[in-house]
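Minutes, project check-in
Item: structure for the 384-residue chain
Input as provided by the requester:
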Amino acid sequence: MLDGLALPPRDTDQGHRAATQLELLFDLVSVIAIASAAVGLHHGIAHAHYAEAILKFSFAFFSICWAWMNYSWFASAYDNGSAFFKINTLVIMFGSLVFAAGLPRFFETNDLTLGYIGYGIMRFGMVIFWLLAAQGHPERRKTALQYAIGISAAQVYWVLVIVFAHELGAIYGGLLFLGLLIELSIPYFAEADQRTPWHREHIIERYGLLNIIVLGELLLAASLAIGQTADLDHFNPAFLTVGASAFIVCCCMWWIYFIDIEALDTDVKTRTFTWGYGHFLIFGSGAAVGAGFAVLVDVIAHKAHTTMHVGVMAVGLPLALYLLAVWLTRDRFRRSGAHGLVLPVAAAVVAALSLLGGNLVLITGAIVVTTIAHHLTHREAAQG
């Protein structure tokens, strides 16, 4: 019955493999969900609900990013451009929109029902894809079926948690965390014996494009801050400082990530999973930096119930995590000696400045110096 819809593997040696228009549309849908999660984090910190906001943001962002990652790796291996592939992808996109629509209620009331419905739609679409891959790729049938079974089992777990455990307080949070571990384990065990035929250059490009989307949260915050200066009767130069800093920090984060270093130079399983999963920290911290700048705008406008120092920490601490995540995911494998210590040292400095001084200008200066040092040491390493 599935023969006509079966998905054969793509050529892993295909040259000039670029993102398709469908994948770019998927990215556009994902940015809506990411923005919704960032708004929840921004409002939570601005109203002094720090721990709750961070935990909810982490859970929501993981769900969005996980669905995007699963689809991107699958499409890299099996996208045949057929009408059915496009239709099922659009169904998954709709699930992402439903998930995003449920995030405001989740941040306000802990009600995850609508979010789960959206997530379930996304994951159901992936089960269909893996069943079709099992039909079209007999050599990897076992791997594809393990994916389909694992994803289905995880959805049963989520239903049980949402229906029966949503009022269990701390236990509920523990069950949600366990669900995340279950989800993360599916690819690792599914590909224990056989690997799916993903395209290395294509995956690198897909991850880079999502990082650009995430960094857009900083540009949005910069625009928001600068827009506050339009009211000349209540002009406050602090808004310009925040806006300029948000733009400069965004540019530096972009430059550090997109420096000319081979992002993923091997298909060894441990390195691949380190690189792929490590981007949770890169993407999540990038979005959190944007939310932190939005908090600063609220603080200056007297719309927040927190302090300027907390707002600066909301920028500096995720920025430090971003630097450390890029090092953990890429630089520590590609650089040696002093050249490889630029980002972890910078992460420690930015974190210290955030916690001790809370000075946004100093943090912005530190990331500029880091970007210059990172670029220069890369050039020296390349010439050496």
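Outcome recorded: The radius of gyration is 21 Å.
No further action items on this chain.
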